């Protein structure tokens, strides 16, 4: 088809606390101009719209002239002016209003071609508001033209759950990603001003897993821990392996004395650590828990080590590509990065040979701005959305490389 449309309805039977608090989706949602923004990023355009409640929506692009259309059912834009939300030069003009009974429309006239990357509507845990976060990436004129076009009238729908038309990862089944909230239980991690790393990382991990699994992008996410409990590093890898994970992302937020460091950074295993990783795995793990799908029972350490080294020839570069996808996507959508975002370390959680592994420091609790962002569910929304985009980009690239892998 020659059109690109993303439609989303978020569990319109959702209950907030109890049945008596259920949302009335027939009422008008209101746009909060102060908490909303449409801005340029290094690689496209980021849209964040704060609404008083969840409403069905759809996104598509039109050519000649180039523009983005966001339809809602329905939104009261009130006194919000385009200048209240519009930042940057990739959108020349913004128009908002009602375009037919029961439907509202936002039109963004473009100065450059962009195409839809991801779109997601989320709701605050207390039900006070909803947030629509959309990312568009820069594109060539030909790509824009090939994807532009209004959806057919038969695609107009009422307030019923609808499958999101996100780009799909090619392959026969979902790619599983293990999301690992660092620390937990007797190991709280960093603590600053009442903010506990283990607790915040669990909240963030739950949000990421939920967003990935609702993205309709051919991905499935699982947690390595689901409560504030201690889980050993070896057990985290075992959980990821048992789920069939192709990658593990371990989430952390360190604290440094002096509080000078800030922003996100991504770690992969150093080459020096790779040399010892297989030996340590062979020493510490049961033979049935070294390589997914391969029983090494009866094999000595030398054979097990050699097979793990062979597996790492593929998963090592895949880890590097995952790290680059995270850094590039964060830069594209405006998530703050550390001044040295790409790092290597001999961390135990990165040692598994049979799936890609990265450790993501999402920020520093010793930095006030990072700490406030991580402690707020609202402020974490762009971070969660960027993680979903980065994981999907990586999974699509890995699916494209699959035919080149050794059999």
How would you portray this structure in words?
It is a single chain. With 407 residues, the protein is an alpha/beta fold. It folds into two domains: 5-155, Immunoglobulin-like, CATH 2.60.40; 175-404, Aminopeptidase (3-Layer(aba) Sandwich). 29% of the residues lie in helices and 30% in strands. It is built from eight helices and 18 strands. It has helices at 82-85, 141-147, 197-214, 233-242, 271-284, 301-333, 368-375, 377-401, and strands spanning 5-8, 29-41, 44-51, 57-62, 67-72, 75-76, 91-100, 103-110, 114-123, 130-138, 175-181, 191-192, 195-196, 219-223, 247-254, 264-269, 337-345, 356-364. The strands form four sheets. It has a six-stranded mixed sheet, sandwiched between helices. The protein has a five-stranded antiparallel sheet with strand order 1-4-5-8-7. Helix 6 crosses helix 8. It is globular. Residues 1-27, 154-168 and 273-311 have low confidence and may be disordered.
Largest sheet: 6 strands, mixed
End-to-end Cα distance, whole Å, is 34 Å
Classify the fold: give the CATH topology of the largest domain: Aminopeptidase
Class by helix and strand content? alpha/beta
Strand order of the largest sheet: 14-11-15-18-16-17
Percentage of residues in helical conformation:
25-40%
Query: What's the alpha carbon Rg, rounded to whole Å?
Result: 22 Å
Describe the global form.
globular
Helix-strand pattern, N to C?
EEEEEEHEEEEHEEEHEHEEHHEEHH
Give the CATH superfamily of the largest domain: Zn-dependent exopeptidases
Number of domains: 2
CATH architecture of the largest domain: 3-Layer(aba) Sandwich
